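Field: sequence (string)
Field: structure_tokens (string)

Example rows 1 and 2, in order.
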Amino acid sequence: MTRYRNFTGVSKTAGLAVAVAVAFGLAGPAAAQESSFGGFEPPAGWLPPPLDPTGVQLQTKQLAPGVYALLSTRPPVDNSGFIVGEKGVLVIDAHINGAMARQIQAAVRAVTDKPILYLVNTNYHGDHTFGNYAFPAETKIVAHRETAEAMRHFDREKALLLPLVNGNAAVFDDVRLRLPDVTFEKSLRLDLGGRVVELHHFGPGNTPGDTVVYVPEAKVAWTGNLVLGAGSIPWAIEGNTPAYLETIARMAARLDVETIVGGHILMTPGETLGSYLDYLSGHIKSVQRALGAGKTLEQTLASLPLEESYLPPKDSPLAAVRPLMQGVHLWNVKRTYQELTARERADQQALAQ
């Protein structure tokens, strides 16, 4: 079964291939120096995604009347987007600093002079939230409750992001913390006038508060890091791949999605949800089998390479994504192995009592 699909709405040009290849070569010595992420030691072979926005432009692509994606010219630097109603505009994600946040607002102003009523943060990571402060004071920032809570760890997030921008602290020079004004738990409907935008939290995945922004009539979903984009696999940054599997299953069951605008990389069809389900299900079973066979973590990492069918073809514009996704897979393997081992140890201790 070939799980890779063509990128939605983006031509496969040589220029894009070069841009992607250059982007994935950015993670240099400063990135390599970071060894611990929240106490988790990434496995050998993991590559930090290069997120320095210097020189990046966000290109506007209309997906349906009043529905726009903002796509980075240098993946995997963050994407964004906005939706226009009769009363005003909703923006998805604020990007990494004030300069990028102002670029988003300029893209909105090129389409409409209606006020930006809402700004939705799809997760707490600084590359999605650090630009919050640069939006108008009257814009209401909306996020899941867990996202809003995690955003309070502002200085820690800056430190974790520094290797991902190649040690370029100037990226964050102007950044100030601005927390959400509105939070929600499961779902929220926002009326823009003649258009209702749905916000959904289907459960934890990449982060505890992952939010999906959905436009029903256009069948378009912005997924932040829950679904990263074309040519990607799930990245369980904070672990718990079984919960991630359940989250994606709920999203696939409840939403009719034709186009996904991921937080990074390129747009991808809704069928990518099936690929994510296949990957997570197979991944969990593979690590369980390795643990059951008595394999060490090192042996498990060595014996479970990422299947070729989950990678973009070697001759595609996103061929440079392959090493990044292979590293993400190793991260997932280590996380899942450690969690299963801890659970097995806890079960044995409970039986012994």
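Row 2 begins here:
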Amino acid sequence: MASNSRTNTESSDFREKRRVKMAKKKLLLRIDPKLHDELRKWADDDLRSINAQIEFLLKKSVAENRRDSNG
């Protein structure tokens, strides 16, 4: 019985960490339909959702901008 209690606690801890990790800001984005289609194709090629693809590209751009600004 003790192991079941521990398993429930571990599952609860995992769910809490996942919930915190998944807490993201929502953003309404209006883009040209042609750009959306291109992003969809690119996301499909990379096995990502379009949302994940846009987030990936934004993070990459921010990281590159920081490198460029530092020297």
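free_text_note (row 2): The chain has a mean pLDDT of 85.
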